[in-house]
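One thing: can you check what follows?
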Amino acid sequence: MAKDSRLAAIRRAILREWRGGDEPEHPDERLHKPDEFLAAILRLAGASEGIDEERLRGMWKEIAGDFVSRHATPASLKNGCLTLQVLQPSMRFHLEQSKAVLLKRLQEAAGPNVVKTLRFAIG
């Protein structure tokens, strides 16, 4: 036993000299998981809207309904303005007429600060 503790002490001394300091007792103690900071980093970089845009694309069929979701899809979300890509001019006219209802549904589903305005683009 004394020999084992002596070898352990020698090993610690050699490692301390080689590393330039003592070995940390708990190396994982000061580590943080990326998810603790990721949302704040994305928000500062202006990339958090990409996450909201993907969420909206996932919920689009439930928000807009089956018919509208087949003829219009979310194209982009920038500064609270959701651009919907509409297949036909007649569908764009229909969506312009029901813009307030659609915007209200979007705000209820995604939150009031995610989508503030709607824009329609034919394409």
The two ends are 80 Å apart (CA to CA). Strands lie at 72-78, 81-86, 117-122.
